[in-house]
TrEMBL record:
UniProt keyword annotations, A-Z: Phosphopantetheine, Phosphoprotein
Annotated Carrier domain residues: 121-203
Protein name: oleoyl-[acyl-carrier-protein] hydrolase
Organism: Temnothorax curvispinosus
Matches recorded under InterPro entries: AB_hydrolase_fold, ACP-like_sf, NAD(P)-bd_dom_sf, PKS_KR, PKS_NRPS_Biosynth_Enz, PKS_PP-bd, PP-bd_ACP, Thioesterase
Biological classification of the source: Eukaryota, Metazoa, Ecdysozoa, Arthropoda, Hexapoda
Enzyme Commission number(s): 3.1.2.14
PANTHER family, per database record: FATTY ACID SYNTHASE (PTHR43775), FATTY ACID SYNTHASE 3 (PTHR43775:SF23)
Pfam family, one: Thioesterase
Keyword Transferase: no
Domain of life: Eukaryota
GO molecular function, one term: fatty acyl-[ACP] hydrolase activity
GO BP terms, alphabetized: fatty acid biosynthetic process
Keyword Ubl conjugation among UniProt keywords: no
Length: 505
């Protein structure tokens, strides 16, 4: 019929706007017992492809099961959904909406189906029982666990079905050789390993946050960009400037401030403080620069301290100040461009921004509450940004009274924006600084780095000094050695200097 319609339309109505045929997923994906049906649909699809190649319209749509009419609708009992070949029934209204989309694109063969939710490890489906069902084994408890499946009657067709089912239903990929040596003991071990990996991966997210991000509370959120600390002020050498970490809050320096000998001002850079620019290191620095210049007055030398993510903003502030003929030095506390890139890639490697949003929310929630992270991850992945936040607020423990809903949003958007800022930050084409840099590294680093100076010799032409502080990325901030470093009371042991060798003329 399709062949005849093609021939007739070419002569009777060569300007035909649409030539549409209904194929089936049985053709595109295959279905046991429907070879002839699939072959016939395949012929229709080839006709449409040929028409398209010749400049005529041709569209073949591979439909899945249709819910309101036809054979599948007749098979339904009491409006229960049938799962056929891993798909559910698609409503006629949905088909019509989809048809409109298909008519507006150029591909000759397309498909539309409603995929049923896959059965994952830990759900109602058991891997061993699934394989036993394929092989026709009714009671796996009576089957010797170490006997290979091939010795129990698994033929080549069963092997293919087992391989595809494990990939489709359980996300387990095995080679043909693996399938041939498979037994029920190995299947049981695969199940246990899969469960352990899921538990490890979901727990790892919140554990990572504990060593990357400090817990915040309502008192930490201050709208002022500049926060003046009460310091000793024993030495009159102008203001020093402090940049906090990924949370953007000045509270990280509050404890050590009383030991600093100079006037100290913290530059807060969270969403509450610089809402329009926190997603960019460059824009954050440019926004903060006028505030620094106003505080410096007649001061021509600068000392900027940056912690973690704040180190990147500190570097760019130094670059902007040098361009205005200021000179000075930087103290970077476990932060550098290359190091932050590796950290973000290691702990926040996500396929999309939506996945990153879910990861940040899941990690934050894990810092404040004991939750079923796997269930929450699945729920978050189904939501858009606004819905994700509603889920986050719903799970956040009300009895803690540490963060209002507004501050929950602020810390989420701040951390998310700063991660995006790290991903977009690129210094490869920027001129190197002239300022010297002192790098403070923890004795328990969160990422391994081949270069001792975190690659800072590529950031500056000046001297790079390295000093080790006991603790990890979070706990090192409670160490008095940081105050000593800021006050220039250097401890000489464990200092390594990096200088680029210059050719002597």
């Amino acid at each position: 019929m399709t062949k005849k319609m093609d021939e007739l339309s070419r002569t009777i109505c060569p300007q035909l706007r649409h030539f549409v045929v209904f194929s089936s997923v049985s053709c595109g994906r295959g279905n046991a017992g429907q070879t002839n049906y699939g072959m016939a649909n395949s012929v229709m699809e080839r006709i449409c492809e040929k028409r398209t190649e010749e400049g005529l319209h041709g569209l073949a749509i591979q439909w899945g099961a249709i819910g309101d009419v036809g054979l599948v609708a007749d098979m339904q009992e009491e409006n229960k959904e049938l799962v056929i070949g891993g798909t559910l029934q698609q409503r006629i209204s949905s088909c019509l909406d989809t048809l409109e989309v298909f008519l507006l694109q150029d591909r000759p063969v397309v498909s539309s189906m409603v995929v049923a939710e896959k059965t994952k490890i830990g759900g109602s489906m058991n891997i061993s029982e699934t394989v036993a069902h394929i092989m026709g084994l009714k009671n796996i408890n009576t089957v010797p666990p170490n006997v290979p499946l091939v010795e129990m009657g698994m033929d080549s067709m069963m092997a293919v079905e087992i391989k595809q089912t494990l990939e489709r239903e359980f996300d387990i990929s095995l080679t043909a050789q693996d399938i041939r040596t498979l037994n029920f003991a190995k299947l049981k071990q695969i199940t246990i390993t899969g469960i352990q990996e899921k538990i490890h991966n979901t727990n790892k997210i919140s554990e990572d946050f504990d060593v990357l991000i400090r817990k915040t509370k309502d008192a930490d959120f201050v709208p002022d960009i500049l926060v003046e600390f009460i310091t000793k002020k024993e030495v009159d050498r102008g203001n020093i400037f402090l940049l906090p970490g990924i949370e953007g809050c000045s509270s990280v320096y509050k404890t050590m401030a009383s030991g600093i000998k100079f006037s100290a001002t913290c530059l807060q850079h969270g969403v509450l403080n610089i809402p329009d620019d926190s997603h960019s290191v460059m824009k954050s620095a440019a926004y903060l620069l006028p505030h620094i210049l106003k505080k410096m007055k007649d001061q021509r030398k600068f000392l900027i301290v940056g912690y973690s993510f704040g180190s990147l903003i500190a570097i760019e502030l130094a670059r902007l100040l040098e361009a205005k003929d200021f000179s000075g030095r930087l103290i970077l506390i476990d932060g550098a461009p290359d190091q932050m890139k590796i950290l973000v890639n290691q702990y926040f490697h996500c396929a999309s921004l939506e996945e990153l949003r879910s990861t940040v929310l899941l990690g934050l929630l894990g810092m404040y509450a004991t939750i079923n992270k796997e269930t929450l991850a699945l729920e978050l992945n189904k939501c858009n940004t606004d819905e994700k936040l509603k889920v986050f607020h719903a799970y956040f423990p009300k009895d803690l009274n540490v963060l209002t809903i507004e501050n929950q949003k602020l810390i989420y958007f701040t951390i998310y924006n700063h991660i995006v800022a790290v991903q977009d930050y690129d210094i490869s084409s920027l001129p190197r600084l002239k300022s010297s840099i002192t790098l403070l590294k923890p004795t328990f680093p969160i990422v391994s780095f081949t270069e001792e100076d975190y690659g800072l010799h590529k950031v500056t032409e000046g001297k790079v000094q390295i000093h080790y502080v006991e603790g990890n990325h979070i706990t090192m901030m409670d160490n008095d050695k940081i105050i000593s470093t800021i006050n220039e009371e250097w401890v000489e042991d464990n200092i390594i200097q990096y200088k680029e060798e210059e050719e002597e003329e």
